[in-house]
Design brief:
Elements lengths: L38 H18 L4 H18 L3 H16 L4 H13 L3 H14 L4 H13 L3 H14 L3 H13 L3 H14 L3 H17 L3 H14 L4 H13 L3 H14 L3 H13 L3 H20 L5 H11 L2 H14 L4 H13 L3 H10 L8 H13 L3 H14 L8 H11 L1
Helix pairs in contact: 1-2, 2-3, 2-4, 3-4, 4-5, 4-6, 5-6, 6-7, 7-8, 8-9, 8-10, 9-10, 10-11, 10-12, 11-12, 12-13, 13-14, 14-15, 16-17, 16-18, 17-18, 18-19, 18-20, 19-20, 20-21, 20-22, 21-22
Length: about 425
Amino acid sequence: MQRLARVSLTGAAVLALAGGLVAVGATTDDRPDGGPDRSALERVDDITRLQAHLVRVPEDHVSWSELGDAYLRESRSTADPTFYVKAEATYAKALALRPGHAPAITGSAALAAARQDFGAALALADRALAADASDAAAYGIRSDALNGLGRYDEARAAAQQMTELRPGTAASTRAAYALALRGDVDGARAALEEAVRAATDPEDAADAQYCLGQLAWDEGDLPAARAAYEAGLEAVTDHAASRGGLAEVLVAEGDTELALDQLEELVEEVPAPRLLVQYGELLEATGDTEAAQEQYDAVRAAQQRQVENGRDVDTERALFEADHGEPEDALEAAQAAYAKRPQSVFTQDAYAWALHKAGRTRDALPVARAALRLGLRSPALHARVGTIEAAAGERGAARATLLRMMTLNPEFSPLHAPPAQELLASLS
C-alpha cells in the first residue's frame, strides 16, 4: 500500500500454529502488479530510489517513512531480520523530523508486530488511531497485536473495523485468520479466496494462496494443497513459503528425494528458521541424523540473529528445543513466552509441550487443553495434546484427541506423525 494503506499477514498468517513464515504486520505497497518475476527487483529499486532521494533531500520526513516501509517489505520477503533495525531507524528519523507523523507511527506499529512485540504494537496502533480514527491499516495492526496477545474477540472486532473502512486483501486475510482459529475452515477458505481476488500485489496473492494451501494441508487434502502452493508460485516464482509447502506435499506423495533436493536449495536461499526445521526434520526422518543436526544448529543461529535484531522468538524456540534440544532450555523459553502471552493458544501449546518434555506432564495437561479451546484444526496441535493426555493417564481423552488428528492430516509430519500414530495404536 502507499503509506501503509494495506497491511497483510504473511507466511502462515491463517494457520500460524503450523509454524509458517510468520511476519505479522509486514507491509506491502499498492503499486500496480508489474508481473511476479519483477517483485524482488521492484523492492530493491524502491529502496535504492528512496536512499538516493534522501541523500539529496534529507529533511523529507515522508520519504524516510516510506523507506521504513520498504525495509519492512524486504524483511518480509527475504526473512532477513537486519531490515528490522534499518526500518526502526528510518521511522525514528521520520518522527524526529515530524513528530506525530501518522504513517511513521503506523509503520512503527507494523514493525513491532513483525518483531512479535505485541504489547508495543498495540500501543503504537492505538496511538495512530487516536490521531486518525479512520486509519484502516492501524486497525489491522491492532488486530494482529491482539491476536498475538491471545485477546481474540477484541482482535476480531478490530479486523471487522478494518474491513468496514477498507475491504480488500489485508482485511480478508485477517477475517480468514479469525475464522481458522475457531475451526471454520469453509469460512476461512472463502475469505482467502476473496483475498486472492482482491490482491493487486503479487506477494499478497502468493501469501493468500499459501494460506489456502495450509488450510488444505491440515485437512489432509493434498491435491488442493498442491494447487494452492503452485498458484502461489505462479504469482511469485520464488515464494519461499509456497516452496516449503510444496515440499511437504511431495513427502506425503512419496517423493522424498525431490523434496530433500528442493528444501536444500530453498534453505540456502532463504535460511528462515521454519524452513530449516522442516529440512532438518525430513533429514532426521530419513535417517541422516548428522545432516539434520547441522540444520538444527543453523536454526539456533538464525533464531539468535532474529533476537539480536529485536524479534521475540521464545514461543518458536520453546517448541524447537522441546523437540530437538534440552528440556530445560525449552522450558526457559516457554516460561518467558507464557509470562508475556498467557492467553495465546500458540504460547499455551509451546508451554504445555515444554512442561511435558521437562517431566511436568500433570502441569502441562490443563495448559495443553486450553490451547484447543478455540477449535483450531491443527493435526500437530492435536498430536501434542493427545501425547500429553496419554502420558497423564487420560487414555480415553488421548485416544479421542489423536483420532481427531487422524481425521485431519495423519501425515502432517514425517518425523512427528509416526510416533503419534503408534501411540494411538497402543491406546486402541
